[in-house]
Amino acid sequence: MNFYSNGKLLLTGEYLVLDGAKSLALPTKFGQDLIVEKIKESQIIWGSFKHTGECWFEAVFDLPKLRLVSCTFNSDKEGNAEFIAESLLEILRAARNLNPDFLSSENGFVVKTELSFPRDWGLGSSSTLINSIASWAKVDAFKLLWNSFKGSGYDIACAQNNSPILYQIEDNNPKVEQVEFNPTFKENLFFIHLNEKQDSKEGIAKFRESKQHIEKEIKMISAISDAFLSAESLQDFDRLIVEHERIISSIIKLKPVKEKLFPDYFGEIKSLGAWGGDFVLATGNSSTPGYFKNKGFETVLTYRQMVL
Fold this sequence. Notes:
The protein has helices spanning 81-98, 125-137, 141-148, 154-160, 200-209, 215-230, 234-252, 257-261, 288-294, 303-306; strands at 2-10, 23-39, 43-49, 55-62, 67-73, 108-115, 165-170, 173-178, 189-193, 269-271, 279-283, 300-302. The chain is of the alpha+beta class and 308 residues long. Strands 1, 2, 3, 4, 5, 6, 7 and 8 form an 8-stranded mixed beta sheet that branches. The chain has a 4-stranded antiparallel beta sheet with strand order 10-11-9-12.
């Protein structure tokens, strides 16, 4: 069995998507495979592989108790094998709670996951995993997310859709609408990695701490999401970016990324998802990649390279 899930970028609505703002999200050309093969032994033998083909995490779980037997974590980055194994175990147990037949047979499985992007890019190594495990377990991926990891669910929607989407939580249910986002100025849109991996859980926690009455801001961001789809010129798009950054900045009390890191940049820059790391969107021209690379940000992708 082979399952594949798309990566994700949140173009509008960061933080406020949690409280019902309509948000524009983009599935990426990068994603994650989950390959499952049956074996006779009552175990799950798990291997997670980087985009380079190198195995970075291995674990063995006993079935049917779903108990960790052993694990190893091969990385010079933060994290440890036990924490990753426990997080994985939490997802698998949550999946079995939703479908008691999942992992209940006498045979076991060799499971291999393979990312097509570097782990620190923040394109959804967790959401792609959760969505594919949900497919394997034949359960609702949104329920699996909310029973294990929390989050808004826009990343699950991206994992399942091959076109841009408007995403909104209404009455605690995900509302997903496929839309056409095909601006005439696509060639002027770039995605730059900030050389930082942002912890979305931490970003959400900070947002929750600064809880305010934001009904007005939610409506404004929802309107901007719609306006992103109908922007007819780069100038209109730039104005929307500036307004969006101003609104979110006023709520989370952080400086917009352009003001903080790139005040001399000639175009506009927008954070995507939790502020402070992963990718940002920049509007510009053929000199844009050189500007960011000169400042030490080597990963610059065009819209066509990034978006599905």
